[in-house]
Amino acid sequence: MQKVLLTGSSFTAPKDVINNEELVRSFNTYVQEFNRLNAEAIVEGKLEALKESSVEFIEKASGIKNRHVIDKKSILDPNIMQPILPERTNDQISLQAEMAVEAGKLALARANKKPEEVDVVILSCSNFQRAYPAVSIEVQAALGCKGFAYDMNVACSSATFGLQAGADAVRSGSGKVALVINPEITSAHLNFRDRDSHFIFGDACTAVVLETEKTCQSSDAFEILSTKLLTQFSNNIRNNFGFLNRTSPTTANSLDKLFMQQGRQVFKEVTPMAAKFILEHLSENHLNPTDIRRFWLHQANLNMNQLIAQKILGKNADPDLAPTILDEYANTASAGSLIAFVQYHQDFKSGDIGLLSSFGAGYSIGSILLKKL
Ligand SMILES: CC(C)(COP(=O)(O)OP(=O)(O)OC[C@H]1O[C@@H](n2cnc3c(N)ncnc32)[C@H](O)[C@@H]1OP(=O)(O)O)[C@@H](O)C(=O)NCCC(=O)NCCS
Predict the structure, then answer these.
(1) From 343's CA, which of 32, 36, 228, 299 has a CA 20 to 30 Å away?
(2) Which residue among 125, 156, 205, 216 is the active-site one?
């Protein structure tokens, strides 16, 4: 079997940052105004008063302190509370493709690869801005890559599932060099008026280059030792946006066409599932948790990651063993664990093994074992 290598990785995030204080101020202004306008109905018991959000809750419950977003101004405007991203003409590069091209170029430069050497382009993320043509094909053309491209979506596990798809393509010989990109514009699927989730997401894009030793010209390569994926259906994280929405005009714009979750339920169910899955993956590869130099865990919730690390290791994990990027970037859906990888792998020595994982909507879980060459 051909060894597949990860030879370049990158992430990009918008420059605009919203901190918790700014987000909560905007949310609470909206709540106060809503309650003021509906005071009568609230007093009469016809309507429930909205509750304010708090910085303390957000930090304690999630570990999130900031998020990078494409359009800070509109999100923070209590009269808008969503990004405003004007539609471009069909002659212009689409927003999501533009984001992917930037991260893709960076990953290719780090892998010492020219775009024309790439013959598989996979865009894998939680939301695509259109049905077709596939955004990946636009990215393939914009970069000047060869071969074929396709889009895929496994929500928060899109990066690990995309990584396995790219690695399988390279291993089987259906392509020589794969570029897998995860452009996550999560701010556009978030309900910034929902107290339970308004703080969760941030925008970012990650990219990786996959190839064999034959073509590798990277001094920063990792062998993909093994990949393992799992899905199990759950409605606890759901978004009903889709092409059939317009065929049901009365519900076309209702709030279930945005991200919704039973956060507490997800926490309870996914934490043991992810820990068990990672332990199984290690055992199948005759590895102990202590053989792992670093865990680049999915970045949805700090408490969840601490619990997963504790279940795997039997002790608390320090940030060197299980780093977090949640404080700066929040939950960037599938991009999170790869951002952690991009930021925290430079100290790896030849032979060191790390584990990259994802867990989220589906449910979906992914685990990738990476060994530094
Ligand atoms: C979303 C999440 C951070 C919420 O944290 P939590 O500790 O579960 O919080 P809960 O929803 O149980 O709410 C606890 C209390 O805080 C309150 N609360 C909720 N949002 C609040 C806010 N923004 N500000 C202040 N209080 C808030 C709730 O009303 C509740 O109050 P109560 O106890 O009086 O009823 C957490 O459940 C989570 O991250 N789950 C995993 C999600 C995940 O991984 N999803 C994958 C997404 S891709």
Answers:
(1) 228
(2) 156
The distance in angstroms from the start CA to the end CA of the chain is: 17
Distance (Å, whole) CA 197 – CA 91? 36
Indicate the burial class of 91 (C-beta count within 10 angstroms; 0-12, 13-18, 19 or more). Answer: exposed
Q: Which residues line ligand 1 (CB under 6 A)?
A: 53-54, 57-58, 61-62, 156, 195-196, 237, 261, 263-264, 266-267, 300-301, 304, 331, 360-361
Q: Tell me if residue 216 is catalytic.
A: no
Nearby residues of 98 by Cβ (< 8 Å), 6 or more positions away = none
- pLDDT bin (cut points 50, 70, 90) of residue 1 is confident
- Rounded-to-integer distance, Cα 2 and Cα 171, Å: 6
Residue 130 neighbours by CB under 8 Å, 6+ apart? 94
CA of 340 to the centre of ligand 1 (A): 24
- The amino acid that residue 47 corresponds to is L
Task: Report the atom number in ligand 1 closest to the C-alpha of 156.
Answer: 48
Domains of the chain: 225-372 (3.40.47.10)
262 alpha-carbon distance from chain centroid: 18
pTM over 0.90: yes
User: Could you read off the pLDDT of 289-310 as tens digits, one per residue?
Assistant: 999 999 999 999 999 999 999 9
Structure tokens at 234: 């759950």
Percent of the chain with pLDDT over 90: 99
Residue nearest atom 40 in ligand 1 by C-alpha distance: 263
CA 91 to CA 223: how far, in whole Å?
A: 40
66 vs 57: CA distance, rounded Å: 14
Using CA atoms, how far apart are residues 169 and 214, in angstroms rounded to an integer? 15
3-state secondary structure of 18: strand
Q: How far is the CA of 54 from the centre of ligand 1 (A)?
A: 11
**Is the pLDDT at 343 greater than 90, yes or no?**
yes
Question: What would the two tokens of residue 15 be?
Answer: 């420059």
pLDDT value at 357 more than 90: yes
